[in-house]
Amino acid sequence: MDDLYDGWEDALGDSLTAKLQEIVLAHETGRPYQTYSYDWKRHCPGSELFIAPSDILILEGVGAGQASIRAHVETKIWIELDPIAGLSRVINRDGAGIEEEMIDFLELQRIHFQKEGTRAAAEFHLNGLH
Q: Quick check: 41 and 31 in contact, CB under 8 A?
């Protein structure tokens, strides 16, 4: 999902919803999907992203469980994770330079999950707290 977001400010907005709908449609019709991944260092569209047709499509990450594509998704899995532990993992992976943006993103994520009913829509719930 990190490649599909459109920067920090609109990470979970209409742009992501449109991309997810296009990806799902392309998958269902056996067509490739082409877009650009987001360049997080330059804060602009980055390199070309190509998703080839396949038998199975896995969308993983915040925003992947949007209501707008649920009817086209076979299995939805919710992984419970403490937001502070998640923040720590991202900072360890990507560096302290994104800490402020990630703290803001956690709030966007919380609002997104609540609005979309993401947790309740999942058929499987896994514990990622340990």
A: no
Domain count, the chain: 1
- pLDDT tens across 8-58, in order? 988 999 999 999 999 999 999 999 999 999 998 899 999 999 999 999 999
Query: Is 120 among the domain residues?
Result: yes
Neighbours of 5 (CB within 10 A): 22
Which structural domain, as residue segments, surrounds residue 96?
14-127
Calpha distance 110→49 (Å, rounded)? 28
User: Tell me, what DSSP letter sits at residue 78?
Assistant: E
DSSP H or E run through 76? none
List b or e across 10-23, with b for residues whose CB sees 16 or more CB atoms inside 10 angstroms.
ebbeeebbebbeeb
